[in-house]
Amino acid sequence: MDTITLWAFVALAAAAILVGFSKSAVSGANTVSLAIFAAVLPARESTGVLLPLLIVGDVFAVYNYRRHADWATLIRLFPAVAAGVVAGTVFMLWADDTAVRTSIGAILLFMTGVTLWRRRAARKAQEAGKADEAGKAEKAGEGRGNARLKAGSYGVLGGFTTMVANAGGPVMSMYLLSAGFRKLGFLGTSAWFFLIVNVAKVPFSVGLGLIDGDSLLLDAALVLFVIPGAFLGRAIVDRINQRLFERLVIAATVVGGAQLLLR
């Protein structure tokens, strides 16, 4: 890994703060971190540097919301996620830096589009007075076959995107929200999900050469910024202007994703 300039380190440190913040407050902030890491570092290697930092953030998230996980949902998801991780590993075996950078940019833009679509659909349902009823009916009355198909499709996509770009968050958010999870159940289930999945990804990343001595040295410096980010998110999570923050995150993600595609 090439020598990192002061300004590049400052950018990575800001992204590391967002990693901790996203795990404790607003998960969408993490997409900005992905774009920054892939822009400052070689895109392929950036995924290996970011993974240990995400795991540190996951530990804080599990500590805060550990009692609110839905383990039946997690068990249903994991087989499909494993298949997606394997598919992502195969892709990373032949993908060069340009292919990975383009893939990360495309994934970020795609997930942003899906997020906007989901928010619009939820807003329309809420205006019609059917949001709560639809969520409860789906979670209570969803057939076994449909539930398995839904978990399988989201799980494979989530596993692939998290292996290639550490970008499984939007996929899992869509799945959990569509299943009718409330705030604490959402936070607890996603916290355990990403801690388990990210730890499981470590051997794959080491085998691909994405995590090595140089990347861990950089992680040792950047982890100091993840921790205050996590505490900051926990302290102000209830006071955030959610709508404004989400708009800023989406705008930054679009700019970052476009920059990666055009670079």
UniProtKB/TrEMBL annotation:
Membrane protein topology class: Multi-pass membrane protein
Main location: membrane
Subcellular location: Cell membrane
InterPro entries: TM_pro_TauE-like (IPR002781), TSUP (IPR052017)
Pfam families: TauE
Presence of keyword Oxidoreductase: no
TM segment ranges: 48-65, 77-94, 100-117, 184-204, 216-237
Entry keyword set: Cell membrane, Membrane, Transmembrane, Transmembrane helix, Transport
PANTHER family, A to Z: MEMBRANE TRANSPORTER PROTEIN YDHB-RELATED (PTHR30269:SF23), TRANSMEMBRANE PROTEIN YFCA (PTHR30269)
Family: Belongs to the 4-toluene sulfonate uptake permease (TSUP) (TC 2.A.102) family.
Protein name: Probable membrane transporter protein
Organism the protein comes from: Streptomyces milbemycinicus
